[in-house]
Design a protein that fits this description.
It contains 14 helices and 18 strands. The two termini are 36 Å apart. The protein is α/β, with parallel strands linked by helices and 457 residues long. Helices cover 31% and strands 19% of the residues.
C-alpha cells in the first residue's frame, strides 16, 4: 500500500535535482533530501532569493553550502564545489547537469512555465501544484513520454497516494466502487460540550450525539452543520486529477461529500441499490471525517471502497478489524496520513531510477474542474483567488473534459484571476466566452495544445 524506496545500483552517482519554489513544501522537501544518499539538491529557484536561503537554512544546509548565482558559469562553479546554487530566474535552470526538477511554486501559471522549461530541458518533472496538474497534466504526461522522460505527481500529496491505492486494488483484482479522500479538516464532535468543530470554528450542536451513533443512512443530511465545509475546492481539484490519471468519474458534479465516520465508509460509498449513496460505481468523492476528540484523525487521508471477492471473504476480513459493510460485500482500504514533502523524494527517485511515475499509466483529460457562479456576476468583475486557492464567487464542479470552445465550461484555474466579460447568473456554469482569458498565459497556451493533442470535444 505504501511505496517502497527505489534504491540505486551500487556505485551510481546521486541524482541531481533542482527545486523551484521555496515555500513551506520546498523547505520540508529540501530537509528530507539531505537524508537520502541517492538524491542531491543542486539548485533552488525562487523569485525571492532570501526565501530560498531561509528554506535551505531551515532544512539544515550550512550557510557555506549555499551560493547565490546570477548566471550559468557561477551555477556550474557552485555545483562543482558541492554547493546548492540559488537563483531567482527560471531561465537559468536550462541546460544544466540535472536529472529532475521538482516544481513547488503553488501557482498554476508559474507551475506551467516551470513544467515547460523542465521538460524542454530534458529533465524529469515532479509537479506539486495540483492546480496546474488538473488543467494541463495530461499534456505534460504526453510530452514527457514522447521525450523519454517522466512527469509525475508527488507521493505525500493525496492524488499520488490515492492513485497508489487504486493501483493496489487493481493488482488484487478488487473492483473500485469509490475512491476519495477526507477533507483537510475533520468534523470533531465533543459529546460533553455538545459542539462540532471544523476548520477552526466551533458550533454548538445540542443533540448531535444521536446523529453520531445512528445508522448513517438515516441521518446523513442532518449531520451537516451550516457554515462548516465538507468538500472544498482543493478537494475537488485533487479528485479531478485522480480521475484523469485513473479513468474514474464523478457520481455528481459537486460530489456527495457526506459527513461520515471512518468505519461507515464502506456502507455509505456503495451503490444505492445496496443501501449506499452512489448512482454509479468507479467514482471519486470526498467526505468529512466525523469523530470524537479522542479518536484518530483522517484529515486529508485517502481511501478506496472495493467489492470483495465473495461475502465470506469480506466477513472474514471484517473480523480482522478491516472496516466493511455489514453484509461483507464492500471493504475499506485506506491510508489516513499524507506526509507532504517528506514522501515526495520517493516519486523523484522512482522517476530517475526506474522511469516510473507515481501517477497513472494512461493520463487523459477525462474531466475538468469547472466553476459555477454562487452569485450573480457582472461584466468587469475580476475573479480573484483567495485562501486555499479558491475563488469566493465560484463553486467547484467536476465535469466531463472538453476543449476551450466558447460555449464549453471554462477550467476553474483559467478563470481564476480573470475579468468577467458578460453577465453570469447565479447557478450558471461559467463558459470560456464568459471570461477574458489571458492571451499571454502559458497555462492557457498549453491547455489549447492539450485540447489539440487529445482531440477534446
Amino acid at each position: 500500500m505504501y511505496p517502497t524506496h527505489p534504491r540505486s545500483p551500487a556505485g551510481t552517482k546521486p541524482a541531481s535535482i533542482a527545486l523551484v519554489g521555496a515555500g513551506e513544501f520546498g523547505a520540508t522537501f529540501a530537509a528530507q533530501v539531505r537524508r537520502i544518499p541517492d538524491l542531491r539538491l543542486r539548485l533552488v529557484c525562487d523569485r525571492d532569493a532570501a526565501r530560498s536561503e531561509a528554506a535551505l537554512l531551515r532544512a539544515g544546509y550550512p550557510a557555506a553550502e549555499i551560493a547565490f548565482c546570477s548566471g550559468r558559469a557561477t551555477i556550474l562553479a557552485a555545483m562543482e564545489r558541492g554547493q546548492v546554487a540559488v537563483v531567482d530566474d527560471l531561465a537559468l535552470i536550462a541546460d544544466l547537469p540535472l536529472d529532475a526538477v521538482v516544481e513547488a511554486t503553488g501557482q498554476p501559471e508559474a507551475a506551467a512555465r516551470v513544467a515547460e522549461q523542465a521538460l524542454g530541458s530534458g529533465y524529469h518533472l515532479a509537479l506539486v501544484t495540483k492546480e496546474a496538474e488538473v488543467t494541463i497534466g495530461p499534456l505534460l504526461a504526453h510530452r514527457a513520454k514522447a521525450a523519454g522522460l517522466v512527469h509525475t505527481p508527488v507521493d505525500g500529496d493525496q492524488p499520488a497516494l490515492l492513485i497508489g491505492l487504486i493501483a493496489r486494488a487493481g493488482m488484487l483484482g478488487l473492483p473500485v466502487i469509490a475512491a476519495g479522500k477526507a477533507s483537510e479538516s475533520d468534523y470533531v464532535f465533543d459529546p460533553v460540550a455538545e459542539t462540532v468543530t471544523c476548520w477552526g470554528r466551533t458550533v454548538e450542536a445540542p443533540g448531535y450525539g444521536r446523529l453520531f451513533d445512528a445508522d448513517p443512512h438515516a441521518v446523513l443530511a442532518e449531520r451537516f452543520v451550516a457554515g462548516l465545509e465538507t468538500g472544498t475546492v482543493p478537494d475537488l481539484c485533487e479528485m479531478a486529477v485522480v480521475a484523469n490519471h485513473c479513468g474514474l468519474g464523478a457520481d455528481r458534479p459537486e460530489l456527495h461529500a457526506p459527513v461520515v465516520r471512518t468505519v461507515e465508509l464502506p456502507s455509505v460509498f456503495r451503490p444505492a441499490e445496496d443501501g449506499g449513496i452512489l448512482g454509479r460505481t468507479g467514482v471519486v468523492d470526498v467526505f468529512a471525517c466525523l469523530r470524537r476528540p479522542d479518536e484518530l484523525s483522517f484529515a486529508g487521508g485517502v481511501f478506496v471502497v472495493v467489492e470483495t471477492p465473495d461475502r465470506a471473504t469480506g466477513l472474514l476480513l471484517a473480523s480482522k478489524g478491516i472496516p466493511a459493510s455489514k453484509d461483507g460485500r464492500y471493504l475499506l482500504l485506506h491510508n489516513p496520513i499524507h506526509l507532504l514533502g517528506v514522501e515526495a523524494p520517493v516519486s523523484v527517485l522512482s522517476a530517475v531510477r526506474q522511469g516510473q511515475s507515481s501517477g497513472g499509466a494512461d493520463v487523459k483529460p477525462r474531466v475538468d474542474l469547472a466553476a459555477r457562479a454562487n452569485r450573480d456576476l457582472a461584466p468587469g468583475e475580476v475573479m480573484e483567488m483567495a485562501a486555499r486557492h479558491a475563488v469566493p464567487a465560484f463553486d467547484p464542479l467536476i465535469l466531463p473534459g472538453s476543449s476551450l470552445r466558447p460555449d464549453a465550461p471554462v477550467p476553474y484555474y483559467l478563470a481564476a484571476g480573470r475579468r468577467v466579460l458578460r453577465p453570469v447568473a447565479k447557478g450558471a456554469v461559467l463558459t470560456v466566452a464568459d471570461v477574458d482569458l489571458d492571451a499571454d498565459s502559458a497555462l492557457v497556451r498549453l491547455r489549447r495544445e492539450q485540447d489539440a493533442a487529445f482531440g477534446a470535444a
